[in-house]
């Protein structure tokens, strides 16, 4: 299934991993939001955790023609995601993402916290209240 990606942390435009992993591989990037998830602080990057109520702000990234398989492999490697591996920190899931400009939702790949990580974050993690990373500090 060929889908765009929803990025919400270090892969967003202007962040460190955007230049390292996305530059030259994207055909379109546009602001969007994922509903049904919240953000938690991680060690230098955030985790999206699926929750009934909540919103995560980020960017919808579409692969440049001819680069999809390469981009998928690069992002899976970056997120240390291996399908079915119980040691995953993230799971890659297909979710509906809303463009900030409006229109119907777009189905996209999103890396969300794997169940054990999500449970740990819910119990003692630092939630980012506005769903934007990095979170503005007072």
UniProtKB/TrEMBL annotation:
Q: Which SUPFAM superfamilies match?
A: Gamma-glutamyl cyclotransferase-like
Quote the protein name from its UniProt record: Gamma-glutamylcyclotransferase
Q: Which InterPro entries match?
A: AIG2-like_dom (IPR009288), GGCT-like (IPR013024), GGCT-like_sf (IPR036568)
Gamma-glutamylcyclotransferase AIG2-like domain residues = 5-133
Mention any Pfam family matching this sequence.
GGACT
